[in-house]
Amino acid sequence: MDTDLDVAPEVTRDGEPDGQRDESMHALLLRLAGSLPDRVLTEARDALAAGRRLDVVQAVAFEAVSQPLQLDSDEIAALREELALSGGDLDLGLALEELRGERPPAPWQFLSDLPTTQEELASMVLPQDRSADPVDLLDPVDQALLAAASEMPKVRAVWRAWRMPSTARPWQDPLRVVVVSVDDDMDSLPAASAELRQVMVEAGDDEAQVEVCWAGVNAPYYQTLARSSSSLLWAARPPAPVTTARLFDGVDPERGPWFATNRPVVSDAGERDALLAALGDGVVIAWSSASMPDILAPDRGDVVPMHLRTDGTWLWSEAVGYYLEHYGLAPDPQLVAHLTGDEPVEPLDEISVHRALVHLCRPDAEAVVWQAPGADDDPVAPADASPADIPSPDGLTPAHPRLPDVASEARPDGGTLRPVSP
Asked: How far is the C-alpha of 259 from the C-alpha of 399, rounded, in Å?
């Protein structure tokens, strides 16, 4: 993930350098959210919205030195530059140099809603899409937030998560964290952040935090984590269906997955390369730490990647590309039609990625099992299959192995699946 300080798009504000400095400070506060105390962050954002950059930079620098809080070299450079431009304490800037180092991620966990029972807790760690829900199902604070945000012409989407107490601070109450995606030509992100927070304060939540991020630009870790475990409350466009591409022709409950002996093969090199390129253009939304055995050449070991990709409309396993590249096995024919067709598609952005995550976290039990047109209605059992017509990439004789440890979902039980969001 790109976490460089320069996360503000290059937008000219009528030639005013002050606007660019505000954007740089806003980007810095996004980077430090979750690491700075909430009170310091709130006061800094209010000061930035009011144009008091000196108050912002001195408060942040003093807090960083007091903790101490490790800072990246670009964060130190940004703080020292603003201290110099604003007439701040240069000795404080020198003290920042002692903080140079890699800052560990803040130890927060986010939930999409607050559970009322222990049984609800498991579902609350999953992302939700509530953008089509009636507004009156939301609490008064969320309702006030959406009423204000939806009137801002540059706002694309609003997510709300609950930040749970960390193990280091178990006495803290859950905190409402709102992530807002806005167009890159929005005039003032600091002002939007302050305005939306004030709306929630007046509605009854004076602790809520608002993270306003540029659409189409990688958000820092804290905001990405919050968004990936949040409820999408409002979006500028309605939800579109997400379809999961099936990987295998069948899955035996004991022996694992298999391909039919007459599985379609893409023999044309140009067509294969075009499909591989289209598959690779999808965004990885779940990164698996485990690989799966090659079921056509088990002697090769665990070499099949199981990351999950999306283009905003379809969701597929990285294994689809593996079996296409090494054996020419055709992907799900509906996925192929989608990738090669000219029908309008859902834009690939934070909204569609979140909705794909919601779809992923509530999978159909048969999501990776698909019957290709013309495949055997009663295929040979996995142990007895002999797909001699499918070549192995390393010359080994392909076979359908026993895979007792492979789940019938698009990832092995032994791996961990981490959400990734642009």
From this structure: 10
Q: Tell me, what amino acid is at 383?
A: A
Provide φ and ψ at 218, rounded to 5°.
Answer: -55, 120
Per-residue model confidence as pLDDT tens digits over 232-265: 999 999 999 999 999 999 988 888 899 999 999 9
Integer Cα distance of 382 and 404 in angstroms: 12
Distance CA 410, CA 403 (A): 14
DSSP 8-state assignment for residue 146: H
Evaluate if pTM is beyond 0.90.
Answer: no
- Note whether 110 and 34 are within 8 A (CB): no
How far apart, in Å, are the Cα atoms of 112 and each of 170, 175, 231, 232, 360? 19, 12, 5, 9, 15
- Interacting residues of 123 by C-beta distance below 8 A, sequence separation 6+: 115
DSSP letters of 150-197? TTSTTEEEEEEEEEEPPTT-TTSPPEEEEEEEE-TT-S-HHHHHHHHH
